[in-house]
Amino acid sequence: MRIGEWLIDAATGLMARDGKMVRLEAHTLRLLLCLAEQPGALVSTEALLEQVWPDSEPSPDAVHEAIGDLRIALGDDPLKPDYIASVRRKGYKLIAAVSDPSAPAPAFEAAPAPAARRKLPAFWWQAGAALALIAVAVATTLVVRKPPEIAHTVAVMPIIDLTNVAVRDPFAQSVTGELIARLAKVPGLGVAPPAASLSYLGKPVAFGEFASALNVAYVVDGSMRKQRGTVTFAARLTRASDGAVVWSRNEERPWDERTIILDEVAAEIGARIVHPPQ
Question: DSSP secondary-structure letter at 169?
Fold first, then answer.
């Protein structure tokens, strides 16, 4: 099927657009197909849990995380979505057009075949099909393995927990790791591993020094505060070359939406680095 600008192969989980290929994980693909069955209609989180994870009982966070992965793969901005819209506390709906990419071939007048033309043996057609499949496989491998440009690299400084500055909360460390994991799924973005970032936990370090040590072009730093069922999350993206803040976000949300914040932050940061505004 075609969803928006993406061509989807449900059998392989591959999405293609403008010569670019992305492979979806099984749960992410099933989630997309569930939404595509009812384009434009609201699908509740409970319904998605039942359809995507029929043999297990995950928490609603599993849907939030899968939606975040899907948005990153589609290149969708959660604040100005072209593909998936969120309806707070209710569910999600696919707002992009869904269509069948196959269409009848245009009718042309058939030209008479030359008398000397010979029909190729069947094995030639089989060999040609096999070579085509190999070419697709090689192209896909090259796309997946192509290293990101140095300009498209980022590292996350350990997130600071402002709830109680006297006590080190391991949750702040887990937020750092979760944000890194989400950024690592952004196509074309190189991300310093969690161990490298968390080695600076509790150590004051300048942005330039941190970026140079981890060999990245951008640095993300942030803070969080938990209070009465809510979480306040602040983050900013700094360009290492000149110290300019190119993106920032600060907002308070219900505690049960903490994973949604990370999904949105990762999508926005990835888009800002890989596809910066002109």
Answer: -
